[in-house]
Amino acid sequence: MAAIYLIRHGQASFGSTDYDQLSEKGREQGVILGKYWQPNVVPSKFYSGDLLRHGQTLKCFTQGYQGKDTPMIIHSGFNEFDHIDILTNYNAQWQNYVKMSKEINRLKEPNKTFQKEFAQALNRWVSGDNDHNYKESWPQFKTRCIRALQDIIRQELANRRKYTGGANPLKQPQDILVFTSGGTISVIVQHILELSDQQALQINQQSRNTSVTKLLFSENMLSVDYLNNYSHLTQAGADWVTFR
What ranges do the domains of the chain cover? Predict the structure, then answer.
């Protein structure tokens, strides 16, 4: 049995001109996770979505981990949904993301206000009533993410069958780390546990930056071992625990 660790990216840069960049705290969160990982299982492979915050989190993780060189594969199937497309379809006045961020930041409780508005925008997207308006519908997003996971499992099981019974057990597939986003992790967990769409959204809302979700798989089994583990952040201090 092998494991896939789904790692959510570090804190991004909400309110800046480019959300898809880690904040300074987000970068340090990646380093903290890497240091935390040092006594744990040695990963045989890294996967990453192709968003900047995915690759930056992986880079910061490796800085903290300081392990041996590990193969890294970019897989766009692990990319997050397009939150800007979802927001602008919800509120046409938010066509300009920078303007939207400035307007929200002027409010007394910008984070709370944004979370409320974003939750409503997500519900509109997930409802299925407006699929034709979006670049990627909710069903299309779920299918893409699940297919990306299945790609990894299919490849790793093929490698296992190739080397089973061979003379070199070190070539057996080992544990894999995937650097991705909260929405992607949520729908993968939804698929495995057969949850509703609303339950998937609840998981996404509770996802912490650089949290770890562990999946176990074999030829005949795929399960969730644990979800949204961020103990590395709580050990570093409560101020390091962030949602966005």
Answer: 2-80+138-240, 82-135
What digits encode the pLDDT tens for the residues 161-214?
776 655 455 455 478 999 999 999 999 999 999 999 999 999 999 999 999 999
Contacts of 197 (CB under 8 A, 6+ apart): 126, 138, 190
CA quadruple 235, 236, 237, 239: dihedral, nearest 10: -130
Secondary structure (3-state) at 239: helix
Q: 2-80+138-240: which CATH architecture?
A: 3-Layer(aba) Sandwich (3.40)
d(CA 184, CA 51): 13
- Amino acid (one-letter) located at 145: C
Question: The tokens of 111 are what?
Answer: 């984070």
**Residues linked to residue 224 through DSSP beta bridges, in sequence order:** 215
The secondary structure of residue 96, as a DSSP letter, is S
Per the DSSP assignment, residues forming a β-bridge with 214 are: 5, 226
Q: Which pairing describes strands 45-48 and 176-180: parallel, antiparallel, or unpaired?
A: parallel
**Beta strand 221-229 pairing with 212-218:** antiparallel
What's 166-194 look like in SS3?
Answer: CCCHHHCCCCEEEEECHHHHHHHHHHHHC
Q: How far apart are CA 8 and CA 17, in angstroms?
A: 22
pLDDT tens per residue, range 75-95? 999 999 998 899 889 887 776
Tens of pLDDT, residue by residue over 20-56, are: 889 999 999 999 999 999 998 788 899 999 999 999 9
